[in-house]
UniProtKB/TrEMBL annotation:
Residues 1-24 form the signal peptide. This is Doubled CXXCH domain-containing protein. InterPro entries: Multihaem_cyt_sf, Multiheme_Cytochr_ET, Paired_CXXCH_1. It comes from the Bacteria. It comes from Carboxydocella sporoproducens DSM 16521. Keywords: Signal. Residues 33-74 form the Doubled CXXCH motif domain.
Length: 338
């Protein structure tokens, strides 16, 4: 009888000391927010069935974003700190800058080489603990570069599926999707093959930094910002669209062979990345979450980091001013004053 009791106690100890798969940082094995059938404890990490203090049976927080930041923010248990734009190495020893940027702070790749307050963000719901993050946008907001409007608050779940298990939701594709990107943002079903993020093999030693997308990110971003997605539109920079506007070509091959007038200095340390086919994508110039880049002049007049429409927004650019232009159009530097 004593042996049986000891066995039961040992089993219980093992049960409660196994780390939750729901927060694993692992691209090759079980991924974040998944494998619930194999370890249903993950459900209780986020939800309370009969006494939740927040909508969707969430454990806490005034909104979904604030709840997500419990793990993905200051001193959170996740290795992905989206609030401050950092990603932790798998061994937990080092924090590296995230190419996506952060919602409160972001690494200044093109300047001081330090974390600075954001100058523009994707305006998700505000976290009460944020010092720089603006209030989010909500129902009826006209999406920049798109014909649609928001039917609800813009939040983490607008782009990510927390229950996707790191794979494509509701598809037969087996490729990993460690960023938990939704298949149908804003209700628009987008092509999914090859959308998953991958590490740049020349710059990922010992880190989890994701620096490159496969293919398809233009269509995915275009689910909301469809006007800006000119992929497959020949001569888009020379022909006005139905709105009378000229748009930079997207999805074009960036090479001096195809475009000898270009000079693509696409060093990943500069935060400029092409897709796996060597083509221009949205994230070649912009960050997904937030940017600390500074700019003194511009023509974009959508809401900036402080929620006000202005012409000096950094519009999620990866580098200061319009330095991203020099990454491909190197000859333009000779237009500067002598």
């Amino acid at each position: 009888m004593k042996k049986r009791m000891l066995f039961v106690l040992a089993a219980l100890c093992a049960l409660f000391t196994v780390p939750s798969v729901a927060f694993a940082i692992n691209y090759s094995g079980p991924v974040t927010h998944g494998n619930f059938a194999g370890n249903s404890k993950g459900c209780a990490d986020c939800h309370v069935t009969h006494g939740a203090s927040a909508a969707k049976l969430l454990k806490g927080g005034t909104n979904q974003t604030e709840f997500c930041f419990v793990c993905h923010g200051n001193a959170g248990i996740s290795g992905f700190d989206v609030k401050n734009g950092k990603i932790q190495t798998e061994d937990g020893t080092t924090w590296n800058p995230s190419w996506a940027g952060g919602f409160d702070q972001a690494y200044d790749f093109g300047g001081s080489g330090t974390y600075k307050a954001v100058t523009s963000v994707h305006n998700v719901e505000k976290d009460s603990g944020s010092t720089n993050m603006p209030a989010g946008v909500g129902n009826g907001f006209q999406i920049p570069g798109g014909s649609g409007t928001l039917a609800d608050n813009f939040r983490c779940g607008s782009c990510h599926n927390p229950h996707a298990g790191g794979t494509y939701d509701n598809t037969t594709y087996t490729s990993k999707n460690p960023r938990l990107l939704k298949k149908a943002p804003l209700g628009v079903d987008v092509p999914y093959m090859g959308l998953w993020t991958i590490s740049n093999t020349t710059n990922n030693t010992g880190t989890n930094r994701v620096t490159q997308y496969g293919t398809g990110i233009n269509a995915w971003c275009g689910a909301c910002h469809g006007v800006f997605n000119t992929e497959g539109v020949a001569g888009s920079g020379h022909t006005a669209d139905v709105n009378g506007k000229y748009r930079h070509a997207m999805g074009v091959l960036v090479s001096q062979t195809t475009h000898p007038e270009w000079n693509p200095g696409l060093d990943s340390d500069d935060g400029i990345a092409l897709d796996s086919a060597g083509k221009l994508n949205c994230l070649s110039c912009h960050r997904a979450h937030g940017s600390s880049a500074t700019t003194s002049n511009g023509f974009m007049r959508y809401a900036s980091y402080n929620g006000q429409a202005q012409s000096t927004s950094s519009v999620l650019l990866r580098l200061p001013e319009r330095d991203v232009c020099y990454s491909c159009h190197g000859a333009a530097q000779y237009n500067k004053p002598s």
